[in-house]
């Protein structure tokens, strides 16, 4: 879940900070998680699944 949230946001920030154009569709996944419904829809996968914490 960490990668799903922060990868799109960090790449977009990095490119925008360098004056590059960022496609809004690229940000949709990261921005979705910023809503309560979006946060509830994400789960931790793989080896970290047993460590899942409640976000809300």
Précis, in short:
The protein contains 3 helices and no strands. Helix 1 (2-17) packs antiparallel against helix 2 (24-32). It has one domain.
The level of helicity is: 55-70%
Number of separate structural domains: 1
User: Which geometry do the CA atoms define?
Assistant: elongated
Total helices: the number is: 3
Mean pLDDT: 72
Q: What value does the Rg take, in angstroms? A: 13 Å
Largest sheet: none
Point out poorly predicted stretches.
none
- Helix and strand composition category: mainly alpha
Task: Count the beta strands.
Answer: 0
Strand content: under 5%
The SSE order reads HHH
The separation of the N and C termini measures 15 Å
Brief descriptors of the model:
mainly alpha, 56 residues, elongated
Structural description of this entry:
With 56 residues, the chain is mainly alpha-helical. Helix content is 55%, strand content 0%. Helix 1 (2-17) runs antiparallel to helix 2 (24-32). The protein is elongated. It starts with a helix and ends in a 15-residue tail after the last helix. The mean pLDDT is 72.
Chart the SSEs and their pairings.
Blueprint: H1 2-17, H2 24-32, H3 36-41
Helix pairs in contact: 1-2
